[in-house]
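Please decode residue identities from the backbone states below.
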């Protein structure tokens, strides 16, 4: 089979990263290999996000650039997948007539069949069918050299929560969970190719399996914890209203579950939380945070926050700043509110002017910046278990001459990036391999990462994260 080349632009969240990987795997049997650059590709897929308007604009700007390429090379296949595809459907063809294939969020598993149709001259094709064939991907995990150390695994799709600002339930459909046996066999297959860490993905993992009568999420975690050869488990995202005692206790009981939770709060004001339809209050949230810290001391907590939701006053925003000071998050993703198609908040009046939104965002980011830095500094002097992922960006860009050490990168159990030197050479005995758990003494804290050195015991593998101490 003549090799063909594929380039995928992935915009948005980890779900899209996972979907892009699955599309690439599904197209491999058709002869598609990864292209070195978009210019070398026979097919370009733009895997889109519509959670905020900026992400949507980015998708159309990439499509705009592809128009010229398509004019020069009419055989180039241009596909649009993901949330914007689902939201806009055939309207994409009116804005970008050079597009050959529009694949909605639940149509991407039919990508191989749809691409075959396009290759045989049927274009354009628009497939927005939401019927769930999530398991119909005819794809197997990639070989070890491509699999990497850490991978995402989708355990559920869609969302039933209907937060007032959010487009997800409208473009990703109702919540559907994958059966545990399929999840476990995917993880076992990934582990067989060298993967050591999985992140289980869902918009609200706490309600995993509830509708279908599958096992509850903590039980799924227990089964994943028992997979031989897997070193670490992470998950995202957890809705605060559904965070159960069972899940809080799982952090204490499952040795492979990393001590990190992403628990989006969105606002510190009860009035705004109610307008957002989040269905918890500030005090419920703080109570869950206290329980998590009680069950798993030192757990890293990160969050999402929206500033400038319609009707947000300066006093509401102060309540948000106050909550951030109280919780001391390890990290925070903060966004300016943006109107989205279908989202009920789009119809709310009392929109916050963009200049106020922008000022609030800056103030929030500045506050969090100081907290993140202080929390990173608190780790200085501690020894952390780090999953070695590969060479750091600096190492990759500078290359290496002679005797200088290799610079590696990895993450702590709390999900902080650590760069560390690894002296290499005959007799040094400290060579690190990707996928290894190594002890790293943290020597320096930076704003967004840590710097460390391999522990005295070289590449000694930490047995469990509980052996890894925090600095006093
Ligand atoms: N399911 C997750 C949850 O329950 O929070 C988050 C999913 S959403 C894809 C990721 C983040 O985008 C949200 O947590 C929220 O902070 C942000 N977001 C969603 N809609 C937004 C909007 N209309 N404007 C600004 N930010 C938005
Ligand atoms: Fe959107 Fe809310 Fe569902 Fe998260 S829980 S995806 S914010 S509707």
């Amino acid at each position: 089979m003549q090799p063909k080349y594929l380039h995928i632009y992935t915009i948005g969240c980890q779900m899209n990263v996972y979907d892009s990987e699955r599309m690439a795997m599904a197209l491999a049997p058709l002869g598609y290999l990864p292209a070195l650059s978009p210019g070398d590709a026979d097919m370009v897929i733009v895997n889109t996000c519509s959670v905020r308007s900026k992400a949507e604009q980015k998708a159309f700007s990439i499509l705009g650039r592809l128009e010229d390429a398509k004019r020069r090379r009419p055989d180039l296949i241009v596909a649009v997948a993901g949330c914007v595809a689902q939201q806009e459907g055939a309207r994409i063809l009116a804005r970008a007539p050079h597009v050959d294939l529009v694949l909605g969020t639940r149509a991407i598993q039919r990508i191989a069949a749809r691409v075959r149709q396009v290759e045989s001259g049927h274009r354009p094709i628009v497939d927005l069918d939401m019927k769930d064939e999530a398991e119909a991907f005819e794809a197997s995990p990639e070989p070890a050299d491509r699999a990497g150390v850490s991978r995402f695994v989708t355990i559920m799709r869609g969302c039933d929560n209907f937060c007032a600002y959010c487009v997800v339930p409208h473009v990703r459909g109702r919540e559907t969970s994958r059966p545990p046996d399929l999840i476990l066999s995917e993880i076992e297959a990934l582990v067989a190719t060298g993967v050591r860490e999985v992140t289980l993905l869902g918009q609200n993992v706490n309600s995993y399996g509830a509708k279908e009568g599958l096992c509850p999420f903590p039980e799924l975690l227990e089964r994943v914890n028992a997979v031989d050869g897997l070193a670490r488990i992470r998950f995202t995202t957890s809705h605060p209203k559904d965070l159960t005692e069972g899940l809080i206790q799982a952090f204490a009981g499952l040795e492979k579950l990393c001590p990190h939770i992403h628990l989006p709060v969105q606002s510190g004001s009860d009035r705004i939380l109610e307008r957002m339809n989040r269905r918890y209050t500030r005090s419920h949230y703080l109570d869950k945070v206290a329980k998590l810290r009680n069950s798993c001391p030192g757990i890293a907590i990160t969050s999402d926050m929206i500033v400038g939701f319609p009707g947000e006053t300066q006093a509401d925003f102060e309540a948000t700043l106050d909550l951030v000071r109280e919780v001391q998050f390890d990290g925070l993703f903060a966004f300016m509110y943006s109107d989205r198609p279908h989202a009920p908040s789009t119809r709310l009046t009392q929109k916050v002017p963009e200049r106020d939104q922008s000022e609030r965002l800056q103030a929030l980011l500045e506050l969090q910046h100081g907290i993140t830095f202080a929390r990173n500094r608190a780790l200085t002097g501690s020894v952390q278990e780090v999953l070695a992922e590969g060479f750091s960006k600096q190492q990759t860009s500078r290359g290496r001459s002679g005797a200088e050490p290799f610079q590696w990168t990895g993450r702590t159990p709390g999900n902080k990036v650590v760069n560390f030197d690894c002296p290499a050479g005959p007799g040094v005995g400290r060579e690190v391999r990707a996928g290894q758990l190594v002890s790293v003494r943290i020597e320096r804290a930076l704003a967004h990462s840590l710097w460390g050195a391999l522990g005295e015991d070289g590449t000694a593998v930490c047995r469990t994260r509980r052996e890894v101490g925090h600095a006093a």
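Observation: Residues 158 and 218 are 20 Å apart (CA to CA).
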